[in-house]
Amino acid sequence: MLAILLLLLLAALVCGRLGVWQIDRAYERATLAAQQEAAEAAAAGPAALGDLLVPQTSFPGELVGRQTWVEGTYEPDDQVLVAGRSLDGVEGYLVLTPLRVSEDGTGGESWATLSGAPVLPVVRGWVDSPKPDAAALDVPDGEVRVSGWLQASESTLRTGDLPANPGGPPLVQDIASSQLANLWDGPVYTGYVVLTDSDPAQPGVADGGPAPLPRPVLEGGTDVNLQNFFYALQWWVFGLFAFSLWVRLVRDEMAGGRRETRRRDDRTDDPVGRGIAGLPS
């Protein structure tokens, strides 16, 4: 029984390890697929915002990280700082500036039924102080063509009040369209753009401008490859079956031992063996 136990436990261990390997493969394949998708999107170049997202419509998850371009005019008097954001392990603030859109590739058709030209939140970069230098808050004058990564509007689950920021822009906790609509005038997009380039250019880091940000990713990681996931489940089921088989063998062996013990006990209690009416058999 011990030999059988070792053999079945070894089989269960092998099946469990194969299941873990399949899970690793599932996430590895999903990661490679996401990297390939990102590379293809980068190679395709920026698409017009109007071809990807219409103002005041739901934000499709597959647009996260897509490159886009849009034209408009910054409204620097209404820009805010998003608190509690880290860059390279240092906590700081995002510079969030409203862009009054004038061209999104549709000639204005995407907002023709709305109350006016929409406002696009643009993250122009990162600063380490709630009162950054004037260069970090300066924007190009007049019409500007903005290119960047698309990201979905955030939720407003964070609680607590932010302190006042005298001498600096107002502070917010989230880049949430529902809140920005109360701060900015006009229809607001359900996503925002993380700036990568603008024409005319904004002040660079060397000149005191905000630091650029990396390409945003979908929170929670990439989806698992379902085929490998189900392969992992199969291996774990096989391992569980091997272990349950050993348990069944042990129970049967114990039950057989108890029956043999009862037979020996019966022979010991009645050594002569009596038949009908108590007479020796």
Task: Report on this structure.
Keywords: Cell membrane, Membrane, Transmembrane, Transmembrane helix. This is SURF1-like protein. InterPro entries: Surf1/Shy1, Surf1/Surf4. Belongs to the SURF1 family. By secondary structure, the chain is an alpha/beta fold. The chain has a domain of 162 residues. The protein is built from five helices and eight strands. Strand 1, helix 2 and strand 2 form a beta-alpha-beta unit. Helix 1 runs antiparallel to helix 5. The longest helix is centred in the C-terminal third of the chain and has 44 residues. It is elongated. The two termini are 39 Å apart. The relative contact order is 0.19. The model has no long low-confidence stretch (mean pLDDT 82).
Tell me briefly what this model is.
With 281 residues, the chain is an alpha/beta fold. The protein has 5 helices and 8 strands. The chain is 36% helix and 22% strand.
Topology, element by element:
Blueprint: H1 2-44, E1 47-48, H2 49-52, E2 67-74, E3 80-87, E4 90-103, E5 119-127, H3 134-137, E6 143-152, E7 171-172, H4 177-183, E8 191-199, H5 226-269
Parallel strand pairs: 1-2, 3-7, 5-8
Antiparallel strand pairs: 2-4, 2-6, 3-4, 4-5, 6-8
Family: Belongs to the SURF1 family.
Region (Disordered): 257-281
Organism: Isoptericola dokdonensis DS-3
